[in-house]
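Design job #97: recover the sequence.
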């Protein structure tokens, strides 16, 4: 059964990695540039936390040294994505795993420098916070409070729900004590929408019909945005009192069972999940964690320190280990560079501005096909007062054939991005055309065009197009130009 769990986990992880790379390539949607195939960034971060919890569950917390490094890097990645809740939850779990490894090992692991080399120094640095906390707990004799902490952990969900209610009912916009606290202040939206939900809807046995609006929280739509972000509030107000009691009562019962069976890692995962429910509501993710956690409990693995201390290449020759280390480092650096440049190139999304503008169509120097002109024609048809600037008569004739009035099409010669921007800007000024210069180009090319526009101090907007052919070739070319600074 453990092998089946691991097979399912690594299959899901492989799909997640494939989605990540496809979203970087722009083949699947990467909403707002950082959701990597998911609808929102928070959904993506929440699923990463779910996968980390599942991995910890199927290993009973006895993760290998590579697993420990992976959890630390994943936590740093969540922080970079500004997934504050996911970062905090995974940080707690990772710290617990490192501390348990530290105490069971009798100190920092892998300190035999002859056998482990650079890994010894790496873990010496990683375990500095663990050593500091362990020293404090030893001096203050806080370890004696462990039984009390475990008893409190049994009731994590009622305690966190009560804390959620206290935060909501004591929240006062603009003058709230909680908003002045640096950490709690970042979750003020959860407090606002939770307070609105309790004020607007009664608590029913089987919930309310709530119209939740998940528009982008821009200045235009912020007043319309309403989502019960808290899992507790979502279950209580939206689904009702009965589902709320069934779910969180069942979770509390499971915690009590784990306490009686001394299943510590299960208690820790559910305790962190209880905290996560205060500010997240991805219920399907919790179900996935619960399924893996319960199956791991019913079918216990071997576990133990031997899993943590497993290093396959320990007995290899030093020269072989160094060679493997250098090759791995080079591959990681190359992959990191690829991911960074791909992210920069793919952040431009297909978007049509809802206003009249001067639409500029780049010439053949950007390797664009007829699909760009077709997109320009669609935009001009939808916006009667817009005009278009092209670089040659052939492009003008193509737009006329698509039904565009010739009086709306201007020809301005340019053979490079800089010429396109400066000549078009001059034409707009001289002819008093609509002032909003909007470039119609492939989505992956807009990053390069924007860099040139920033240097020239010319503000631009964009209508982006996804290439119909030669997608990967164009993408690789844009990555290379980005690396070369072109």
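Job complete. Output follows.
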């Amino acid at each position: 059964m453990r092998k089946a769990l691991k097979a399912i986990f690594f299959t899901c992880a492989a799909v997640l990695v494939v989605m990540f790379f496809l979203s970087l390539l722009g083949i699947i949607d990467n909403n707002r540039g950082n959701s990597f195939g998911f609808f929102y960034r928070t959904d993506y971060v929440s699923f990463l936390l779910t996968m980390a919890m599942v991995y910890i569950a199927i290993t009973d917390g006895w993760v290998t040294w590579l697993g420990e490094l992976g959890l630390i890097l994943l936590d740093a990645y969540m922080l970079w994505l500004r997934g504050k809740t996911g970062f905090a939850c995974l940080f707690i779990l990772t710290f617990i795993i490192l501390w348990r490894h530290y105490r069971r090992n009798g100190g920092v692991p892998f300190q035999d420098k002859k056998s482990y080399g650079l890994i010894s120094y790496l873990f010496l640095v990683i375990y500095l916070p663990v050593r500091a906390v362990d020293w404090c707990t030893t001096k203050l004799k806080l370890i004696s409070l462990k039984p009390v902490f475990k008893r409190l952990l049994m009731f994590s969900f009622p305690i966190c729900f009560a804390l959620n209610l206290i935060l909501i009912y004591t929240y006062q916009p603009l003058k709230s004590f909680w908003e002045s606290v640096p950490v709690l202040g970042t979750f003020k939206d959860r407090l606002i929408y939770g307070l609105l939900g309790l004020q607007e809807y009664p608590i029913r046995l089987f919930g309310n019909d709530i119209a939740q609006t998940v528009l982008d929280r821009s200045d235009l739509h912020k007043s319309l945005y309403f989502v019960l972000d808290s899992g507790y509030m979502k279950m209580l107000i939206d689904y009702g009192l009965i589902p709320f009691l069934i779910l969180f009562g069942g979770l509390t019962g499971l915690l009590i069972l784990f306490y009686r069976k001394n299943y510590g890692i299960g208690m820790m995962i559910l305790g962190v999940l209880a905290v996560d429910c205060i500010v997240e509501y991805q219920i399907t993710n919790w179900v996935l964690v619960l399924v893996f956690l319960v199956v791991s409990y019913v079918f216990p693995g071997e576990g133990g320190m031997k899993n943590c201390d497993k290093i396959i290449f320990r007995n290899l020759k030093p020269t072989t280990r160094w060679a493997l280390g250098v090759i791995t480092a080079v591959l990681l650096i190359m992959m990191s560079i690829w991911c960074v440049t791909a992210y920069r190139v793919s952040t431009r999304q297909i978007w049509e501005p809802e206003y009249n503008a001067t639409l500029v169509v780049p010439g053949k120097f950007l390797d664009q096909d007829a699909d760009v002109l077709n997109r320009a024609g669609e935009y001009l048809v939808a916006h009667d007062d817009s005009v278009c600037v092209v670089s040659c008569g052939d492009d003008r004739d193509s737009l006329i054939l698509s039904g565009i009035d010739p009086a709306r099409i201007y020809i301005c010669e340019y053979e490079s991005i800089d010429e396109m921007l400066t000549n078009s800007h001059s034409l707009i000024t001289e002819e008093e055309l609509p002032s909003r210069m909007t470039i119609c180009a492939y989505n992956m090319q807009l990053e390069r065009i924007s860099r040139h526009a920033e240097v020239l101090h010319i503000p631009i907007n964009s209508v982006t197009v996804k290439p119909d052919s030669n997608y990967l070739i164009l993408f690789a070319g844009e990555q290379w130009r980005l690396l070369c600074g072109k």
